[in-house]
User: What shape does this take?
Amino acid sequence: MRIDKWLWFARFFKTRSLAQAVIASGEVRLNGRIVAKPAQDVAPGDELIFPTGKRRRRVTVLAPAERRGPAPEAQGLYTELESPPLEE
Assistant: This one.
């Protein structure tokens, strides 16, 4: 599944365009590597680090998403890990 769609389906961003913009800015890491394109695939077991608002999130992907469902459904797609500090 595309990383931009997964981030949107998991409700980390209000729109898919916002997810794509953050990815294009070079601030998203997939398994420690910077993601350059929104079409990058993510799979269960992958670790993502990305900024949301004033904090940086670190999550492990548990499942691909079928749709953008309600928040409880979206929370089942990932496990939240301890977030690294936001660099200033």
Remarks:
- The longest helix spans residues 16-24.
- The chain has a mean pLDDT of 93.
